[in-house]
Design goal:
Layout (H helix, E strand, L loop, with lengths): L1 H36 L3 H6 L1 E9 L3 E4 L1 H15 L3 E11 L4 E11 L4 E12 L5 E8 L2 E2 L4
Parallel strand pairs: 1-6
Antiparallel strand pairs: 1-2, 3-4, 4-5, 5-6, 5-7
Amino acid sequence: MRLFLVLFVTVVGLSCANRGRSNIARDLFRTYSQRVYNKEYDLVRSMYHDNAVTVEKGKRAYYGPDAIAKAIKMYHEDLGVSKTLNTNEQFIELSNDFVYYQSDYESELKDQNIRGTYWQIWKKSSDGPWKIIHDEFSIDKDDDN
């Protein structure tokens, strides 16, 4: 019985620790999203690691915080996103220093709808803050448009 109790407490403790780190990923992504949709591109830029890469699947890639922030601004200006819904979200602790976010998304634009997948890997910097080291997305247009 004592062994069972020790195992139970250990499993619950690990589960709570992982949940806490999953909350870190959730909080990081929420802050990131708010900054993107509030058009706070300098703050968005500050969330990327110096060697970060953003990839539009099958099309192009952007290297470094400056290029990535400019690309995000360009996408939002060109597409004119009015409403986005993220579904199937996953917030995963990869280790103490890495967390992962993944989702499917659908965006309603003025003249069309787009959908796709989106994911990010965050790394905890040696000086403290979490930074995005890689994110990747796809843009698929709905067949009805």
